[in-house]
Give the backbone structure.
Amino acid sequence: MSKKCSITNKKPLSGNNVSKAINKTKRKFLPNLQMVSFFSDILGKKVKLKVTPRGIKSVEHNGGIDNYILTLKNKNHTSVTKNLKKIILSNKP
């Protein structure tokens, strides 16, 4: 599985570990990913996503996963949210 947020599209960053002697070695800064299940009112079931805490706050601020995905601009969608949007739009009454 990729270490990428399903909502905010955050990816691992690279940088250096720097010791007191200023020796530099390569390292990775990984995003804080959590497996979260959001309840979709339109689908009537839970949707599991790998999300960062910032992504969880964004979804909760917008009133749930359905409202967040439907109000998100097309250029900001990830591949996971594009597929979810298609499913939500096809099941929307």
In short: The beta strands are 13-18, 24-29, 34-40, 45-51.
